[in-house]
């Protein structure tokens, strides 16, 4: 059916791609159709950057997830898709659950197809003698050092300079909820209205993993629960509905 | 009369010398030739090894200019912010971290820093002015011409003499 789809869309393709257009797996992405892309007019024919959802195969670029074509000046293209399943990507920060200790690595569940490994030496200030205090069941905020389709993903809790910078074990007294990957991206987008609305409710703290896990903590259990419920309901609310709901929460009627 | 070797006439010396030279040259060339052949042999050997020993029977791979770079992560595409946030001063440590990790806020901080620096330089300028105010007289002296300087000195001396205390003889 993919082939028939590709044939069906080939007429569309010949007219060129538009930013914001729906793409399906198997579609071919044309970099040559630059004159039809409004923002890339200024870009020279130098390297185009293919973000997630676009895969290079030979000298063609194929779409590998369904979604909307997005573009950022000068030459970055990616496919924005709705998904709940996380696929590890190098450099992304995720919330993992430590599921096993085996020798010098921890096995961490990040919600991907495979458990990721996290070396005990990749914590700030850890040495061979000085092991970090990580127990099974702990939450860790970690960054992917190795993430490709052929190898076991590997996490680290330090940056290149050996600093933790907020990475590491966290999560005493908070609540972790699972939301879609798209919602986390919406929350983390620069100038996000959703984040601004959330920030005005209670004094609270959040940790957002790009794997769709969000950890919330506030000064009381009730507030933490309210926040986590609001977060989960934000998934389907329109901006107006959201504002109304948040207003009611602020007034304390909910 | 003379016991010893008979002096050798000139031409013979030349001949001897020439023969010696040719010998040396010959030897040198021989050696050189030897080295050259050796080198050539080595090269031949190497070529044989490189050509036949490690030859892969594959179609030629053409290296094309790569116009497409792949980026697996969405973070640089959408400019996503760092995933640790704290609101209304709930966790001051994290709020500090937010300022460090999010580049936008970082620039704001930079501007603040710049302002601070500017302010600091303003203060130091004032300080400098105050400092130089007290140095004016000594600087004046330094830049004065010889006669003027003498005048200044005289002035000073006069002042000194005028204020100089004189021993007053006590009256009997």
TrEMBL record, chain A:
Annotated keywords: Cytoplasm, Exosome, Nucleus, RNA-binding, rRNA processing
Domain K Homology: 174-222
Keyword rRNA processing attributed: yes
GO biological process annotation, one example: nuclear polyadenylation-dependent rRNA catabolic process
Subcellular location: Cytoplasm; Nucleus, Nucleolus
The UniProt record lists the keyword rRNA processing: yes
GO cellular component: cytoplasmic exosome (RNase complex); nuclear exosome (RNase complex); nucleolus
Domain Exosome complex component RRP40 N-terminal: 21-75
Molecular function terms from GO: RNA binding
Entry's family note: Belongs to the RRP40 family.
Record-linked PANTHER family: EXOSOME COMPLEX COMPONENT RRP40, PNAS-3 RELATED
Name this polypeptide is given: Exosome complex component RRP40
Source species: Periophthalmus magnuspinnatus
Automatic annotation (TrEMBL), chain B:
Domain of life: Eukaryota
Single Gene Ontology BP annotation: maturation of 5.8S rRNA
InterPro entries on file: MPP6
Pfam families referenced in this protein's UniProt entry, alphabetically: MPP6
UniProt-listed PANTHER family: M-PHASE PHOSPHOPROTEIN 6 (PTHR13582)
Protein name: Uncharacterized protein
Species whose genome carries this gene: Periophthalmus magnuspinnatus
């Amino acid at each position: 059916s993919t082939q028939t789809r590709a044939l069906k869309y080939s007429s569309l393709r010949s007219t060129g791609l538009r930013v914001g257009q729906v793409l399906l797996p198997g579609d071919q992405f044309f970099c040559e159709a630059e004159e039809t892309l409004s923002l890339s007019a200024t870009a020279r024919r130098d390297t185009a950057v293919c973000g997630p959802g676009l895969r290079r195969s030979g000298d063609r670029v194929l779409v590998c997830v369904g979604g909307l074509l997005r573009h950022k000046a000068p030459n970055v293209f990616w496919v924005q898709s709705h998904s709940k399943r996380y696929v590890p990507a190098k450099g992304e920060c995720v919330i993992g659950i430590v599921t096993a200790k085996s020798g010098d690595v921890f096995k961490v569940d990040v919600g991907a197809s495979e458990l990721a490994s996290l070396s005990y030496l990749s914590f700030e200030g850890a040495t061979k003698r000085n092991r970090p205090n990580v127990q099974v069941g702990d939450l860790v905020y970690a960054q992917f050092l190795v993430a490709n389709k052929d190898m076991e993903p590997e996490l680290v809790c330090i940056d290149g300079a050996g600093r933790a910078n907020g990475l590491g074990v966290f999560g005493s007294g908070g609540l972790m909820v699972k939301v879609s990957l798209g919602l986390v991206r919406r929350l983390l987008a620069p100038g996000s209205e959703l984040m601004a609305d959330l920030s005005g409710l209670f004094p609270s703290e959040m940790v957002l993993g790009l794997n769709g896990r969000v950890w919330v903590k506030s000064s009381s259990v009730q507030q933490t629960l309210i926040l986590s419920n609001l977060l989960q309901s934000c998934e389907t609310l329109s901006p107006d509905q959201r504002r109304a709901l948040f207003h009611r929460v602020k007034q304390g009627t909910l | 009369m003379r016991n010893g070797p008979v002096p050798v006439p000139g031409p013979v010396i030349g001949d001897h010398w020439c023969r010696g030279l040719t010998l040396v040259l010959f030897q040198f060339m021989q050696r050189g030739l030897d080295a050259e052949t050796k080198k050539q042999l080595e090269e031949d050997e190497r070529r044989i090894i490189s050509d036949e020993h490690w030859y892969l029977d594959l179609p030629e791979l053409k290296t094309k200019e790569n116009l497409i770079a792949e980026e697996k992560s969405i973070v640089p595409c959408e400019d996503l912010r760092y995933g640790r946030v704290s609101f209304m001063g709930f966790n001051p440590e994290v709020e500090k971290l937010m300022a460090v990790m999010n580049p936008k806020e970082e620039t704001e901080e930079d501007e603040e820093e710049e302002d601070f620096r500017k302010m600091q330089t303003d203060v130091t300028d004032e300080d400098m002015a105050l400092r130089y105010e007290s140095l004016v007289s000594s600087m004046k002296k330094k830049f004065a011409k010889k006669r003027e300087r003498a005048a200044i000195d005289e002035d000073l001396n006069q002042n000194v003499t005028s204020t100089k205390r004189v021993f007053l003889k006590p009256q009997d």
